[in-house]
Specification:
The longest helix has 17 residues. The relative contact order is 0.08. The model has no long low-confidence stretch (mean pLDDT 92). The protein folds into 3 domains: 130 residues, 3-Layer(aba) Sandwich (Rossmann fold), CATH 3.40.50; 215 residues, 3-Layer(aba) Sandwich (Rossmann fold), CATH 3.40.50; 109 residues, ANL, C-terminal domain (GMP Synthetase, Chain A, domain 3, 2-Layer Sandwich), CATH 3.30.300. Helices cover 27% and strands 26% of the residues. The radius of gyration is 24 Å and the shape is globular. Helix 7 links the parallel strand 10 and strand 11. The termini are far apart. It is of the alpha/beta class.
Amino acid sequence: MPEILAGQCRRMRDVPVTVFDDRTLTYGELQAESQRIAAGLQAQGIGRGDPVILVIGNRSEFLTIFFAIAQLGAIAVPVNVALKGDSLAHVFDVTGARTAIAEAAFLPRIDATPGGLGRFAQLFALDGREPARARGVRAFAELLHAGDVPAAVRVAPGDPWTILFTSGTTGPAKGVTLPHQLISSAAWDVVHGVQMDAQSVFYTFNPLFHLNALIYGPMAAILAGARAVVRSVFPRESTLRDLRQAGATHWTATPFLIRALLAAPEAPDDADSALRFVLSFGLTAGEVDTFERRFDCRMVAGYGCTETGMVCPPQPAPANSCGRPGDRVDLRLVGADGLDVPAGSTGEIWVRARQPFDAMLGYYRMPEATAAAFTDGWFRTGDLGWLDPAGWLHFVDRIKESLKRRGENVSTFEVEQVLMGFPGVAAAAVVGFRPDARAEEEVRAFIELAPGSGAAFDPAALVRHCGRNLAYFMVPRFIDVVDALPRTAVGKIRKQELKGLPLQSGTFDVRAAGIEVPR
């Protein structure tokens, strides 16, 4: 990517490449500033293989520093800016990084971890008041005065560029080490999957410390000679207006956001935007059709994970499918016995890259976890899916989130789709719940209602809706209406927080209500 950026810079130096809230960067500015920062880091002893912690939100310095680190063969470690305490210290401890660059606002959070600010040999602060030099904190501006160009470093496709940490919902977060090749390959797949060109504008407010925003944003834009608009926060009610003002042609959106736009009253200017492609997943055929007609754009699906990059590149796909596997990967669906399942049957999705360095290099400093994630060179995603006769991949559930009731496997994903098809339901999360230690696991649903739907919501009617659309053993027994479901920075529901919650006084119990679910 640094070589590609340099090439684009020669052709379009004064053309904007990224629009952040704080400033717009041209191709030339991104190239020149990343080189100056690289020279500054190099003068501080940063070189090949050295991890550098970044505690930075969606702002222009994130990208210039990210590319600066790439030019040195060093490793960028973007940190989820919501982390604190032990979770934040875990990232520091795993990487063993001795250098960090952080927004001044996050310094107290770093200082509150064991070892405090002093755990880093070098800590540079972005903005804020003059750093407390007595504590060893230095101004980021110091890195800009060492020279305009660093000493040349040969960077190969298989060299690590970044360590991105998993959510750690089922154990300690793991640092996924990604090489330069994977990032450029994934960006290439996006560019060609959604037909990006020099006039494209990819819009995102997802955080850059996740692969989604990096790829579906700056990296794809650079490859296409296009522009990325990166917002620092979710604009909520003004999302559609901001998309228009940004001239966005491409956007990735969670199903929650798509449904929120569909729930809003229709307006004559709904289709008055530059939107061409919107990537989402988990929507019904009716929702896709309505959204495409109302907003005059094309919905596309895709599938991948941090460890593998794009498995199914973004593409128009049938409803409830996440696309066809791309030509960079081999894919298997494997049963619990380790054998491939028959066509149309559900199995765990296993993936193998067809060329070197199109997959992660491993979990950083976690050889046992790395070995456990692979079988004979195949990465086990932990996702369940099936392939239809036309070769479309259908996601079923996360293995760790699926549950068993009455001896039958329950796809929480499938139940959630049915729940969200009920009027007034904006979002849903389904988990397993045991009323007591000896009881069988039951299906429990947490429901987030659309604004203004609370008075008319009838849980009994929701149960009847489920009974018409789900096998009897999949119908939730317990239903909780909550003000807001807990979400990560990218909008993913944190189910782990819901699994341990006791029943509430307002929990609706289907059995106690005397409702018979048809078989």
